Amino acid sequence: MSDPINIRDLAVGSRIVLGSGAEVEIVSNPKDGVWLFARYLASADDPAIVGQEEMIFAQDVVEVRS
Amino acid sequence: MTMNGTRGYYSGLVDLATGLISREIFVNGDIYAQEQERVFARSWLFVGHESQIPNPGDFFASRMGEESVILCRDRVGSVHVFLNSCRHRGMKVCRYDDGNTTVFTCPYHGWSYGTDGALVGVPFFREAYHSELDKSKYSLVEVAQLCCYKGTVWANWDASAPPFLEYLGEFRRFLDLILDGWDGREGQVELLGGVQKWIIPCNWKWPAENFSGDTYHNISHRSVDLVGAGPSGRSRRDYNELAATRKLHVTIPDRGHQTITYVLPKDHPPQAVYQNSPEVAEYFRHCEEERRRRPGANSRLIGAPGEVFPNLALLPRQPRTLAVWHPKSAHETEVWRFFFVDRDAPQQVKNFLRDYYIRYSGPAGMTEQDDMENWNYAHAASRGVIARRHPYTYEMGMGHAVENYEWDGLRVPGRVVDLTKAMASEEPMRNLYRRWAQFMEADSWDELMTWRRDALREAEAAE
Amino acid sequence: MSDDRVARLLLTQEIAQFLYTEAELLDERRHDEWLALLAEDIRYWMPMRRNVKYGDTSREFTRETEDISWFDEGKDTLTRRVRQIQTGIHWAEEPQSRITHMVSNVQLLQAKPDAGAPREVTAKSRFLVYRNRVETETDLLVGKREDTLRRAGDGWLIARRTIILDQNVLLTKNLTFFF
After folding, report:
1. Each residue of B101-160: pLDDT tens digit?
2. pTM for this one?
3. Nearest chain A Cα to B94, which residue?
4. By the CB < 8 Å criterion, does B351 face chain C?
5. Closest chain B residue to C69, measured at CA
6. Whole-number pLDDT of residue B384
7. Fewer CB within 10 Å, N- or C-terminus of chain A?
8. Cβ–Cβ contact C139 with B under 8 A
9. Is the Cβ of B100 closer than 8 Å to some Cβ of chain A?
């Protein structure tokens, strides 16, 4: 299990990896440390989701790639 | 109106036939608890000013009765008032005084709401809730009615309450006195930054009845008058212009609003005020001339302390401020004070007025301090077993109010007491408590909207 | 110890003594003597405080000369406040409160031109104001002060006082006393 990441100040445009392995790009950050609005860039489990925007929960963020 | 033996407001507590009101209404915990349902859950309450939330995402944490609410503007610019409590387990979703946000997020389990109140973020929605939770059922609790009037925002939890302007009735012109510019242009005020919030150890009805129009308590403020804290260096207010007027108590009986007001004679020139500041004196003089040029009777009215039922006090003139008396317990009130200036006034004028406001009102206000001392200890003295056997007298001037009052061509609405000779009366307090008793008794708004019944009867009689 | 360090040490103690003397005057209700310690152009400011998001410090305090604060005034208003108490009929201070000012954490921030022969000094301190009134009414107010003091003869005048009270909703019913 990876160390928790504080998502509060992550910049728009950052690429992050979720617990499922999917990669998303931050579209907006409400800076509450709990949620991000992000767009899917890649998902092995569900390729159809690429391009869709979703709210990402903090506990689901495992890595900041850029 | 229904008479309930256990409440018996008219028979036991508020007796308008004799002008005697029981001390119980101030100190009794059961009455206080009932007020939250009967008065605060169905009245129009002042929540804030639109200038506090100019942009999408802006919010201001406010209060309605005892409860925390969020005043905010959503992404498309609409104004909302929500209960500040997560639908899941109640934690406050907003714990900042004000700011800008895209979502309100609960720190307990992470539920998140848009600025339109919609539940948008539920952690593990697919996994833990199996996508079965109906998010649309769990938006932030929103007020039933909302009204933006000349920048002020009012809200009501009761869908069956009359619309705000109907609720105000003929009191509207007195609210206009604080919200319109000094020159009479509509809605020209801006709110000064910084809302004063402080706690006073008394029931909310003490300040409410005081601001309804206590013309008898100048002795409370004698020390301020002596040191000359007013804007012309004398007394606590400017009285030159008031010397030429008729001083009145105006009460709107079927709405429960009331005020002191001063009526200028027709064609009366502006008097010298704000003499401690040539810029303010000149600005005021210029505004007064403009005001006299505009159509409408308000140019002859000078604002003074007044009360919109139940707990919004207004002072349109010196100083210019709204206060909300938020109930906290039977024995405590949390006051929120808002101060206004003309949006277009020169900065020096705003500065001068701000200085005056701070030294006049609020906990550091030389005038308000003595009011609070009296409310504090009058309340405390009302609590005892023996004290509660002795009702308060609100008899002053009973039977001397008139309808269709007119002076020098200006007709004044409601029931009016001319204070020129009388000096003081307690008609405003009787008006406030009559309405309060009606609210405590009425099972529905239908019973409270007596003016609609009267209008219907008049129409039927005319046929 | 270097001359400068000694000078700073002595100056800090001198400032502390001044602040204790000032507190003494207020606690003893010697208000006219307290007014005499204020420069004619004093600014006396106590901002209100907001609960703000982490990092949003610019919004935490109301702004001097722009927003409504608890106090934001000069010597004229402070004098009127004293005169009001002295009328003997300022009911909020009649009977008068019993007040103790505790001053601590006195820190010398800056001495101009230098600590050896200073003409103007900025100093920070902490206060605990205990106010007891009538029978059982008690308030405890705690916070920080930042003062600018100006040399006047052998003593000092307060040219500027910023009072940072550690409260949001004010928990005392009035502010009839001085910080």
Report:
1. 999 999 999 999 999 999 999 999 999 999 999 999 999 999 999 999 999 999 999 999
2. 0.96
3. A32
4. yes
5. B194
6. 96
7. N
8. no
9. no
pLDDT (tens digit per residue) in C116-159: 999 999 999 999 999 999 999 999 999 999 999 999 999 999 99
Minimal Cα–Cα distance from A55 to chain B, Å? 7
**Contact across the interface for B227 and C87, Cβ inside 8 Å:** yes
Cβ pairs bridging B and C (under 8 Å): 123
Contact B228 C80 (CB under 8 A): yes
Is C59's CB within 8 Å of B223's CB?
Answer: no
Q: Please state, in angstroms and rounded to a whole number, the distance separating the CA atoms of residues B238 and B231.
A: 7
Q: Which of B394, B400, B399 is nearest to B420 (CA)?
A: B400
Max alpha carbon distance in chain C (Å)?
A: 55
Is residue B352 pLDDT above 90, yes or no?
Answer: yes
Residue that the structure tokens 């009526």 belong to: B263
In SS3 terms, chain B reads as CCCCCCCCHHHHHEECCCCEECCHHHHCHHHHHHHHHHHHCCCCEEEEEHHHCCCCCEEEEEEECCEEEEEEECCCCCEEEEECCCCCCCCCCCCCCEEECCEEECCCCCCEEECCCCEEECCCCCCCCCCCCCHHHHCCCECCEEEEECCEEEEECCCCCCCHHHHHHHHHHHHHHHHCCCCCCCCCEEECCCCEEEEECCCCHHHHHHHCCCCCCHHHHHHHHHHCCCCCCCCCCCCHHHHCCEEEEEEECCCCEEEEEEECCCCCCCCCCCCCCHHHHHHHHHHHHHHHHCCCHHHHEEEEEEEECCCEEEECCCCCEEEEEEEEECCEEEEEEEEEEECCCCHHHHHHHHHHHHHHCCCCCCCHHHHHHHHHHHHHHCCCCCHHHCCEECCCCCCCCEEEEEECCEEEEEEEEEHHHHCCCCHHHHHHHHHHHHHHHCCCHHHHCHHHHHHHHHHHHHC
Q: Could you state, in chain order, the average pLDDT of each consecutive group of 10 residues for chain C (179 residues)? A: 90 98 98 98 98 94 97 97 97 98 98 96 98 97 98 97 98 98
| pLDDT for B14 | 94
A neighbour chains, 3+ CB pairs within 8 Å: B
β C38-46/C155-165 pair status = parallel
Rounded to a whole number, what is the distance in angstroms from the first to the last CA of chain B? 27
Residues 119-148 of chain B with CB under 8 A from chain A are 120-121, 123-124
Q: Positive or negative, the Cα torsion across B222, B227, B229, B230?
A: positive
Stated as kind and residue range, the H or E segment containing C158 is: strand C155-165
**β-strand B196-200 against B332-342: which pairing, if any?**
antiparallel
Q: What Å distances lie between residue B256 and A50, B204, B433, B448, C175, CA to CA?
A: 61, 16, 8, 11, 33
Decide if C173 and B200 are in contact by the 8 Å CB cutoff. Answer: yes
B288 near C CB under 8 A = no
CB-based contacts of C164, cutoff 8 Å, min separation 6 = C46, C47, C49, C61, C143, C144, C145, C146
Q: Judge: B110–A30 Cβ closer than 8 Å, yes or no.
A: no
pLDDT band at B9 (very low <50, low <70, confident <90, very high): low
Q: Is B102 on the interface with A (CB under 8 A)?
A: yes
| pLDDT at residue number B160 | 98
Query: How many other CB atoms sit within 10 Å of the CB of residue B331?
Result: 18
The pLDDT value recorded for residue B221 is 95
- Which two three-digit tokens encode residue B444? 């529905």
